């Protein structure tokens, strides 16, 4: 009983520490998504105001065909917004996965267990590494 209580308390502390670590990154990302939405909406409404002014001349190429403008037309709706609850949940989940991943650049590779097809025996991946030669894992192909 006491052991399970300590285990739950330890898990709670680990989750709290991870949330405190992730929260500033998450807020920065959420602010950037909101800022991109704001800039797109601002550009859309400023473009509407300019429609009353005379349109610039259409650019023609060498075949006398109209060249499309650099920017595509902007359509602002709730369907194409960046800062939505679903996108914020995906950002939180992605940052949480990034924090808890086992493999990090520049660090030693994780030594996971693999099952051999013959006899269903367990071995570690790094048991197959030989000296300074790189270890290449090929998981097969269906093509």
TrEMBL record:
Swiss-Prot/TrEMBL keywords: Oxidoreductase, Selenocysteine, Thyroid hormones biosynthesis
GO MF annotations, alphabetized: thyroxine 5'-deiodinase activity
Span list, region Disordered: 50-73
Pfam families assigned to the protein according to its UniProt record, in alphabetical order: T4_deiodinase (PF00837)
GO biological process terms, semicolon-separated: hormone biosynthetic process; thyroid hormone metabolic process
Recorded coiled-coil stretches: none
InterPro entries tied to this protein: Iodothyronine_deiodinase (IPR000643)
Gene3D superfamilies for this protein: Glutaredoxin
UniProt KW Phosphoprotein keyword: no
Acidic residues bias spans: 60-69
PANTHER family (UniProt xref): IODOTHYRONINE DEIODINASE (PTHR11781), THYROXINE 5-DEIODINASE (PTHR11781:SF4)
Name by which UniProt lists this protein: Iodothyronine deiodinase
């Amino acid at each position: 009983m006491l052991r399970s209580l300590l285990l739950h308390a330890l898990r709670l502390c680990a989750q709290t520490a991870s949330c405190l670590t992730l929260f500033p990154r998450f807020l920065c990302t959420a602010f950037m998504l909101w800022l991109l939405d704001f800039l797109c909406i601002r550009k859309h409404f400023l473009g509407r105001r300019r429609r009353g002014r005379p349109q610039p001349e259409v650019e023609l190429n060498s075949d006398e065909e109209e060249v499309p403008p650099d920017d595509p037309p902007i359509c602002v709706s709730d369907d194409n917004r960046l800062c939505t609850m679903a996108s914020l949940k995906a950002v939180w989940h992605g940052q949480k996965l990034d924090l808890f991943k086992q493999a990090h650049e520049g660090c030693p590779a994780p030594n996971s267990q693999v099952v051999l097809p013959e006899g269903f025996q367990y071995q570690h991946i790094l048991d197959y590494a030989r000296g300074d030669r790189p270890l290449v894992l090929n998981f097969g192909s269906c093509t």
